Amino acid sequence: MSKPIGSSNLHRPARLGVAVLLAGLLAGCANSNLTTGSIGPAGNKPIAQLSGTELQSALASHRRQYERNPNDKSVAIAYASVLRMNGANEQALAVMRKAAITHSRDKQVLAAYGKALAGAGQFPAALDAIQRAQDPTQPDWELLSAEGAIYDQTGRPDEARQRYEKALQIRPNEPSVLSNLAMSHMLQGDLPTAERHLRTAVQQPGADSRVRQNLALIVGLQGRFAEAEDIARREMTPDQAETNIAYLRQMLAQQNAWNLIEQEDRQNAAN
Question: Which Pfam families match (predicted)?
């Protein structure tokens, strides 16, 4: 059996898990007024905090708005954001590609287009769009964090962390940036440092369920499974908690599977 890619037991499965988590954070990097709104019974709750049922309701609501006003940039950006939260990355990209053609010089549209490209795994194009949306004279911390996440996804951790540090200089202790920084360390197998950043992140007023989900994953990967499940259940509806715990168990099972593969590889090498 061929040896898995990566120098440690943590590296390969961590990359598989973090791809989902970082993509989620990219989806949440848009300006806050574009990721909130009155969505039926959910009120003004941020998209990241919606349950599965609420997300479906939000998707239907934003689809109707988009069908009525397809050229309205705010409507397109909000619709694409909800699509990404529902896992419809290719459809979100199609929406934002159309918006980028209509509003080719609009910085908000370019930024959202870059996030949609990243969600669809088109990282070079995403990086180009986000960098074109950035104003070097007045850097946007959200775009810096999104840029860092793309660098992490493409195996450039030093450049990623430079972007996170710049973002934190503009917005100290911003939980979404700290979470992305933590997952950057996770990709390199440095779980204690990742946990330290996430502990700081979850204490901040703006921390949402994605930050706690990342912390639960990091704690679980260090073998503290009961604590990880407890974190995944906090401040969530039962449905949200069960979804997070199911995802956590999937990631931890994946971790264990790769550990077993590496053990077998070592045994084969010794024979």
Answer: TPR_19
6: left (phi over 0), alpha (psi -120 to 50) or beta: left
Query: What's the pLDDT score for residue 228?
Result: 87
> Residue type at 183?
M
What tokens does 247 get?
Answer: 């995802």
4: its two tokens: 């898995």
Residue 266: per-residue pLDDT:
61
**Position 15, amino acid:** R
Q: What is the pLDDT of residue 45?
A: 59
Return d(Cα 202, Cα 254) in angstroms, integer. 25
The encoded tokens of residue 41 equal: 């019974």
The architecture (CATH level 2) of 11-261 comes to: Alpha Horseshoe (1.25)
Paired tokens of 168: 């934190």
Domain boundaries, the chain: 11-261
Report the first-to-last Cα separation within the chain, whole angstroms. 13
pLDDT band at 271 (very low <50, low <70, confident <90, very high): low
By three-state DSSP, how is residue 1 classified? coil
